[in-house]
Structures are given as C-alpha cells and as structure tokens.
Amino acid sequence: MSLTHRRNTRPVLVGDVVVGGRNKVIIQSMCTTKTQDVEATVAQIHELEEAGCQIVRVAVPDMEAALALKDIKAQISIPLVADIHFDYRLALQAIESGVDKIRINPGNIGRTDRVQKVVEACKAKNIPIRIGVNAGSLEKKFLKKYGYPTAMGMLESAREHVKILEDLDFHDIIISMKASNVELALAAYQLAAEEFDYPLHLGITESGPLFSGSIKSAAGMGALLSLGIGDTMRISLSADPVEEIKVAREVLKSFNLIDNAATLVSCPTCGRIEIDLIPIAAELEKYIANIKAPITVAILGCGVNGPGEAREADIGLAGGDGKGMLFKKGKIIKTVPEEVMLEEFKKEIDAMYKLYQET
Ligand code: SF4
C-alpha cells in the first residue's frame, strides 16, 4: 500500500526540476557559506548535490552576493535559488545573474512598480517565486488581529502575497508556511493545501540541532506527507547542511516518495543475537548512503527471525553460528564464514546496484 500523495498541484519548473504535480518530493537545502565566497559556496553545493540535494538556496543579503550568483551558477548543475528579503534590486540582480528561482514575499517589496519589475523579470526568464510565510516574521497586522502567530494569520498572509502575483498574471508560485512549532506548521500547511493548488515547500523551521531537529522535522513533515501534502522540502538543522539531505532522504523513504535511495532494514538485536550487528549496521548505513537506487538491504542478527526478514529485502544477510546467509530476492545465494560475510555482502550490494544502473 502506498500513500495517496497530493497530485493536483500545479507543476512549477525550477531550472530543469519539476516541483509539484507529481508523486515525488524534491529535496532542498541551503548553503551556510557566505554567498560572495564563490569557491566555498560552490564546494558546499557540490557536497550537497552528491548527498542527494536537488535544489539549493543561498542567502542574498547584499549586492555583492547577488553579483556572485553568476559565478556560482556557472559552476553547478542543480537549480539555484536566491533568498531575498525586501530589496527588489537584489531580486533583479539575482535574476540577471541567472538564478532558477527567487524566494521573496511580494508584499514586502513595497511600491507596486517595484513588484512589477521583479515579476516582469521573472516572467521574461521563466523563473518561479516562492512565497515564504514564516510564523516568526508574520506581518504586524496579522499578529495584531490574532494576538500571536496563528495558522489563519499565516494563511491570510499567504493570500495577500499570492494575490499580488496573481493580479500581475503570475502563477509560477511555490508557497511555504514554516513555523518552528510543529502543531502550528501542520495547521498552516493544511489550510494552504485546501486553499491553493500551488506546490507547497515543507519546512519545520529552526527545528534544532541534528538529533532533536531531525526528529522534530520528521514528526512534522511525516504528518504532512501522510496527508499527501508537500511537493518539496527542507529539513532545517543547526548542523552541516549535508545532514539535512540525509534526514530528508530518510523521511521520504518512509513514505515511498523517493526513488533514488537505498533503504536499510536492521534488527534491534536481542538475547538471540549471534553476531556483532550494531557496528555492522552502522557501517552498512554509511555504505549505502550514496546508492541512488530503490534497493532494500537487510541485516539481521540470528537464525531465528533473521532468514525470514532477510528474504523480504532485495538483498539480505542473516548472521549466526559463525556464518552469514546471503539472500537475494528471497532466495539464499550463499553461506559464508562470519569473518568475510560483510565484505561478501558489500560485493553483492555493489553487483545489484550495477545491475540496476545498467537496466
Ligand atoms: Fe533478535 Fe534475531 Fe530478531 Fe535480531 S533478528 S532482534 S537477533 S530475534
């Protein structure tokens, strides 16, 4: 059984990546480097891409950063997003520099002629705009109306920004409704999903450091994905952004919403354990991290439940009694001594991945 993912969102093209209108969720992250440091930013984008990032965002706080985007864009292959607050001149320069999307709230740009200039520039280059509603920076009038950030206040804010763009006949819109409070984010995203057919970019913003932030993000985004909501996502962690990609991939695997990642099944171990499974599972987790194929790999620690579980995976290993039984597509392919079972298993994983790449 797989989830019914919201299919009716309007497809929006970000560079060569389609966001929305499909049953897959695009993974994004944001650079932590200074954007004007082109070398460091490009290096970080390459690392993120290698980890599975599909769209990358950079902060554009000033003109130096906006100008640097051109050099960055020339050296990367995934779509580049400029994150801009208020200043329409930075937006215009970012567009001129060749970015694939801008994140700016049109209602914060100011005069209508300035908004118009940005929208016309986006139209001319087929660049979408992400409206980023954030509970932490909700406009004063909505805070006054509701007393504090509420889902309805966030929806009303989104409505206003969307209307500005629609009135200018601009529809390449992506919307985010971020909050660090999971319940608030859930409510805001659900309201947005009911109201708009534009793709939604999911985020539990400022969710925290690697461990707690990953769990909080997974809880929030998992709840939304289980409702079929979300076309693109960013895990926001106080950590190396590569970790954000790893977490996002794990979340999407849980919902079968990613087709270029391998999944590891490993047993929790118990009193029946016959091999030193925990370090082996950790090593395998790292080993399969760069596999860009939907292969399920299983490692189980005894001959009681192990073989049954290992059979279910595409490729499995059940250890015990000084040996390891290797399974492929439900059948035992060989039994090897425990000392060499991990190396043998890795060879079989490599062979399966190679076959997948060739077919
Ligand atoms: Fe215990 Fe075996 Fe199950 Fe692992 S597979 S948890 S060792 S019974």
Task: List strands and helices in order, with pairings.
Blueprint: E1 12-14, E2 17-19, E3 26-30, H1 38-51, E4 55-59, H2 63-74, E5 80-83, H3 88-96, E6 101-103, H4 112-125, E7 129-134, H5 140-146, H6 151-167, E8 173-178, H7 182-195, E9 200-202, H8 210-226, E10 232-234, H9 241-254, E11 263-266, H10 277-288, E12 296-300, H11 306-312, E13 315-320, E14 323-328, E15 331-337, H12 338-358
Parallel strand pairs: 3-4, 3-10, 4-5, 5-6, 6-7, 7-8, 8-9, 9-10, 11-12, 12-13
Antiparallel strand pairs: 1-2, 13-14, 14-15
Helix pairs in contact: 1-2, 2-3, 3-4, 5-6, 6-7, 7-8, 8-9
Iron/sulfur cluster binds next to loops.
Number of helices: 12
* Count of folded domains: 2
Mean pLDDT: 93
Q: What is the C-alpha radius of gyration, as a whole number of Å?
A: 23 Å
CATH topology of the largest domain: TIM Barrel
Order of helical and strand elements: EEEHEHEHEHEHHEHEHEHEHEHEEEH
Give the overall shape, derived from the CA principal axes. Answer: elongated
Strand order of the largest sheet: 3-4-5-6-7-8-9-10
Q: How many β-strand stretches?
A: 15
**Structural class of the secondary structure composition?**
alpha/beta
What ligands can be seen in this structure?
iron/sulfur cluster
Task: Outline the low-pLDDT stretches.
Answer: none
Strand count, sense and closure of the main sheet? 8 strands, parallel, barrel
CATH superfamily of the largest domain: Dihydropteroate synthase-like
SS strand fraction: 15-25%
CATH architect. name of the largest domain: Alpha-Beta Barrel
CA(first)-CA(last) distance: 25 Å
Q: Briefly, what CATH class of the largest domain?
A: Alpha Beta
Helix content: 40-55%
